[in-house]
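User:
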Amino acid sequence: MHNPVRTTSLLLLSFITHFALQAQPAPRPTPADTVQAGPYDMGKMWTFDNPPTDYFKKTYGFAPDAHWFDEARLASLRFADYCSASFVSANGLVMTNHHCARESGTGVARKGENLNATGFFAKTSAEERPVDGLFVDQLVKLEDITKQVQEAVTAAGADEAAQVAAREKIFGAIKIDYTNKPGWQGLELQTITFYNGGKYALYGFKRYTDVRLVFMPELQLGFFGGDPDNFTYPRYALDCSFFRVYDKGKPLKTTHFFKFNPNGIREGEPTFVTGNPGSTERLKTVAELEFDRDLKLPQLLTLLRSRSSALQTYNVKAKNDSVLNEIFGLENSIKAYKGQLDGLRDPYLLARKAAFEKQFKADAQKKGGSVSLWTDIAATVSQQQTTFNDYTYFAPNPLSTGETLTAALTLGLLTEAAAQNPRVMQQASAMLDEVPKPKSRALEEAYLTAHLTEVQSALGNDDPYVKAALTGPNGLRTPREAAAYLLANSKIGSRLVQEGLIAKGVEALTSSTDPLLVLGRIGGKRFLVANEQVRQSTARQEVLRSQLGRLLFATYGTTIPPDATFSLRINDGVVKGYPYNGTVAPVFTTFAGLYDRSYSFSGKAPWNLPARWANPPAELLKQPMCFISTNDIIGGNSGSPMINKNREAVGLVFDGNMESLPGAFIFVPDANRAISVHAGGIAAALRYIYKADRLLTELLSK
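Assistant: Predicted structure:
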């Protein structure tokens, strides 16, 4: 599953914080008081710290022992810091998605090669190419540290900031303590938070840094259908790649791997996904979800749409691959966040969240828990509503304001901060170093126009910032007119000018009449005030969420799994179709469908196929390609193995359908589906198209 676009902020503060309407929804009761919470609204992302043995036995008549879970954990990997993967042979062969491997894979291309166009296969072990900087992590040690952390937080007293600081301090102390403990030496240590603080664990990872590319299909196959087909089903993407871990210069020998089974998918069969889901927010209160629905997500979608449009217009002439990748990322995020917003706007889904909240309160009270937490969290949400505009629109962020205004806002913010602490100016150059150089004047103008349009709509024409930005000699300019004027009459985009003003000190920054710096001072001052208020309310909210998590765990224990935190989980489901578009989605697709979809679009991108795929053998056409199941996944699960009860790899997770997008805040398995590449499809492509006999033999060896 593709991850939503990441953005950065100069103060290490992102104003973008933390999916679709049911195509064929089952009849839903409309009165909120008739809606009940589903048994798995909080999902099925079980931890290996508390494996769900009894639940699996009750649900599937299958009772895996500790050895089963240990082997599943040790065969599962974290791929760099953004995806999942797994060992699939005794010789260190690693399987993950093409879209996870794309950057690493194309990075090993040699002069004259275009691996996106040709794909890659190492016919011999000597041809396997090392990928600089790539690593995979294997979880080998787990330790419960809940008692130490919660005692340290409690000892910090009532101050929220002190509690957060105490938690971070004890995290550091625990890592130092375990660094020299037997069995933990040489491991990558990470503290893991469950239930927002209801439980804590220390994980020790064995990191492998000699990772080499073995196989990667062409981009047309790995990303077949491109963004239009993303988050949809039926699907026809060969979204797979293979790497190999080396140890001391030789392929790693391991007994911990998932045997490859190309014939292991049957409708109704249970399936299990082991991977690292990135982030869910299913413990959020209704008040917090309403904030996301009414403010955060609508603003974010407006931002992403306008920036994508600007980049697409720019790239008509530029035809720049990096810009194209940026557009792909934005469009992917638009689709994902729109699906999440549509889910939040579905009265039935929000009513289910309210029903769970009501039941949670009642159950907690029976056990002596306090229910005032929901009121306290709602109060922090109200505070964030009052600061939303200033914190959102005046944060120095190139995606929001363009590079030039970002520099001006940074200088304006520093000007105001320096009045309180002159030493702040010493950070000015370093902060401006983080601002990217503008790609073009036209793109800067488009971004600034979009920003001014958004602040005018959100703040109104009487707002001082809007007046300063839009006022001309004949009244208010349009945002487009104002953007053109401001950029034409400002020199603040020049690094020499910036350094000159910094060298002259705060007085020069304060007295400058550069029109963009004038805006920067107004916006920077307001952001500084809003940022401090948000910092305080966020610290308060973090502590309250932690208390809510502790209450959840105290009330339900491990019967409810914690939110995703990009830590290793195992989830369960079954291979199952679902109603869509007036018909029924098939459990699996075939290569015949791949060709039909390409022919239906006359072979135009992104449904075009490479030349080697032009004349497929008849046997390939009937082979399965992708399939669906009810497993609970989210971004970060990309590259996760889909396994069966025998711990065999039967598929490779790469996406979810549109109906899965509300899974960020609620898991509704009625039509929520995980989409995987079929193991049989991978084997068929290797056999009939790529003639990758060496790899195929290794995968299918007994």
